[in-house]
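DM from R.C. (forwarded with permission)

"hey, sorry to bug you on a friday — could you get me a structure for this? deadline for the figure draft is monday and I only need the backbone to look sensible"
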Amino acid sequence: MNVRVASVGLGRFGKRPEGLVDLAAEAAGAALEGIGRKTVDLLVVGTMLAHGPAGPMALLPRLAGRLGLESASGLRVEAASATGAAAFHAAVTAIEAGRASRALVVAAEKMTDLPTASLTRELTAALHESEVAAGASMVGLGALVAQRYLQRHGASASAPSLVSAHDRRMASRNPRAHFSTPVSASEADGSRPVALPLRLLHCAPISDGAAATVVERGRGPATVLGLGQGFDALRLIDRDDLTSFVATRLAARRAYEACGLTRKSVEVVELHDAFAPFGLVHLEDLGFCGPGEGASWFERGWVGADGRLPVNPGGGLLGRGHPVGASGLAAIAEIALQVMGEAGPTAVARRPKVGLAHSMAGLGVQNFVTILGEAAT
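My reply, with the result:
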């Protein structure tokens, strides 16, 4: 592709006093400063909930006005918890199609001001209506998937805690992360049960935050090498296998094929681990290890900053935080910073040439894979 990430803007994730527009404008402003405030002809905004003090908010025109981009074209994108990745893919597609030459992509979410019951109800809307009618929740069905995975592969109930400990260790290096202190696997094992086998430290926190990227025509260290997307059945009961996400495998295959690379070329990865066991599943579905082998990679330290495949250098969803509409773009932004050599405190030991960001909507119904790196001449 002849599209590159030119700059990145990331705000701090966590409990923030600012409103949604302020959060989005902070990240967007940083990304625009990174290109010297050059002209942007497309603004793509991603948000899942878009709540303001008076209820649902028209974020796109408000943000365009705040940034002085009224002369640009604009799109609002929503794809549940994969919204940020979907917004990025939409912008890249528009540039590839010749509809724009430079786009600002912004993804933001304000969650911590909502009552937990209301937020749970909003997130549950991403499930099939029959599951909702039966009383299912996102964490409840996530626990079912985790239980099946651990049973099928004979994995210890402590295996997910390896992911939690890893993400929190990575997040402790990230000044923009929701959590700044590491936790041990044993602390995760002993945290409060939520929906067994999921415990509190196996679940991504409710967060506020925003991310932004400027993408433009051309090539560079963070060229868009491949994009992939895949769907799966919305109802879990309609899936052939609950221990793997078909949508991730499809998205990965399409992204690898688009750039003519394999998983062996990837040197750093950001995974969408809203629940810790999913970090194991995603590592396997992306082709980096075989079924049931994910836990051994975390146990042996192969996913550390100096390991054979650094995973979640920004802290992942469990450490960086999970403002649902922003997480997918934050993962892409982190990979862009890594391959551009601008990651600062989250940099992995060896500057990677190719990186991969993974994002998941709901319980794996619509998943995205984005591959960035230096384009071959």
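R.C.: lifesaver. The chain has 13 helices and 13 strands.
me: no worries. The domain at 3-114+207-215 is CATH 3.40.47.10 (Peroxisomal Thiolase; Chain A, domain 1).
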